[in-house]
Fold these 2 entries.
Entry 1:
Amino acid sequence: MGRAPCCDKAKVKRGPWSPEEDAKLKEYMAKHGTGGNWIALPQKAGLKRCGKSCRLRWLNYLRPNIKHGEFSDDEDRIICSLYANIGSRWSIIAAQLPGRTDNDIKNYWNTKLKKKLIMGSINPDALRKPQQAAHFSSLLHATSLPSSPSTPLSSSPSFTCSSNSYNYTLARSFTEPISFSSSPLSNNSFTTASMLQPQETFVGSMQNYQVKDNLIMFGGEASCSSSDGSWSNQMSHVKEEYEHGDGANNNTGQVGLQNYLHNGVEDGQKLMFSSGVAGHGVLNGWTGKPIGLWGENPLDYSLEEIKQLISTSSCNNFLFDENKTAEKAMYY
DNA sequence: AAGTTGCCCAACCGCCCATAC
DNA sequence: TGTATGGGCGGTTGGGCAACT
């Protein structure tokens, strides 16, 4: 048996929003906000609309800083790369494109970008650009986590982004805001100047992380993510782990995070690191457990492979073809 | 000029999940 | 602990419009 509808469909107005309705909603939001209850909002605001409809209208069109119009080439690449990585997780993809909404991106992908890819008007090389990989969705894999949660961190666990030869080192002390530093490992084919200087700390505090489904995101920009940018209510279990560190030995957070990395992170779960540097202010990385399974960057998908994904993906819960999936254990 | 087709995108639908009770 | 409720999100729909015949 399905659940009861959220409102009486017969009594609410449907279809396109009028300027008057927009104005009412805007005015109400400016004065009161949602009040934490979208269902009750229409009545309070004098709108004959379903609460969900109000929410959608606000989040997708009326809230400040919404960006409409043409997508840039950079945005195209971000969307393609992330789609190849995580599939149709539009809210997550939207979180990486300031001002864009998941609905916007979803529509853009379905109507234009998919075709662009198939027609070959997106340069496949762009999808492989190292700076793109590092900038938007670097895959990191942990290389030196302690073998058990009870083992103190004898050395800093490191997360290596294999595609661009960067080594991200997890700061050892979690009593301070968690941070990562970067250092180029070798002569890279691209410059770091626009991104990170060696040893530059780039990720913000542990207090600023988010969990969504099997993804853990550090940083990010709530104000422009997804439909509403709200991940906070889904972060509780990680936060708890983090906060349950041993305060007595001043390792608060360290044990918690260790526990989380070893226990809290389910198999196949990913960590996503995000910070506000360069370009759109987003630098991401992914890592996951089991450790070490990701030997290569999933961004290294060729145009042909992405095309194949498009043509074969009737279900969105897989990301890669069978062989790739098994090889990389990229389920989530 | 009229009819048809295809595209775009705003809005809706329905399921899932978290939380309150 | 079970149930009800609200929020979030991906998939789908359908109206409006432009392009085409």
Entry 2:
Amino acid sequence: MKPGVTLLTIGELSARSGVAPSALRFYEERGLIHSVRTGGNQRRYERSELRRVSFIRIAQQVGVSLERIREALAELPERRTPTKADWTRLSARWRADLDARIALLERLRDTLDGCIGCGCLSLQSCALYNPGDQLAAQGPGPRKLLA
Amino acid sequence: MKPGVTLLTIGELSARSGVAPSALRFYEERGLIHSVRTGGNQRRYERSELRRVSFIRIAQQVGVSLERIREALAELPERRTPTKADWTRLSARWRADLDARIALLERLRDTLDGCIGCGCLSLQSCALYNPGDQLAAQGPGPRKLLA
DNA sequence: CCTTGAGTTCAAGTGCACTTTAACTTGCAC
DNA sequence: GTGCAAGTTAAAGTGCACTTGAACTCAAGG
């Protein structure tokens, strides 16, 4: 066994990432991660896939859809460990989005208290709910939350 | 017509809140909002319901589930405009949660850049992904994201 | 060898948050 | 009083992110 070429089984990747095997297969189906196959058709994962999986989970935690994550990961080299430049590109792309989400959360936190005194959370005047009618204009549904 | 008792139709509430009528009926079915009925069985909403709807949408934007929102709203007086104390209670309840979500987002934003240099996003060492193994221990699935 | 736990595929099922459809009724404007 | 947009219900459908089940194969220890 050549050192450094230790591939992970799906069970091992699952254990190390905390993601169910079924979810890992699902991610692969959707093109978010990749595997090589053994002679007996079993999946084997390179260690770099662990990094991808962790990235997927982190992004999900903050509400990014799998499709958006797939797009982002598609810009990383398909099977090789990403370089500094790869991560920098991805980071820059998402920064505005993350900043916006942070701002929204902070507004909610700060305004929940603030509104208590100001009679807020009435649509006409609430700066939180109605920052330029932008939110309402985007239509209903959780589908569009990060659009 | 007594002044101050202007009830809203579902269409009006929809227009003012930016939430589809079907969603409003759905919220009512789930006990998040309430209506009174006309002789002909049509819904009429008090103005205070507008405040509830806006609250629902804001909370959804930051990833709170309808069930959690329902619980929160259940602590507000069912049909009456909430008092300062009502909002304060609700705000205090959610504060820790919101703070945690903000912290996670900020960590992702700051660490995405940081990890570029530190070889991070490998599960062993990444403080973002693995703050005390807490996230992984919570199991997979977007269902539990805010549990 | 043989057992057994881990892995495989494909199809169907689940939970959430709604939307759509169909068939029907109300209520305001003229 | 009549027309028609806006309202009503119940049931089925949709999109996302998975999970579960059935039926089967692989791989490593005793």
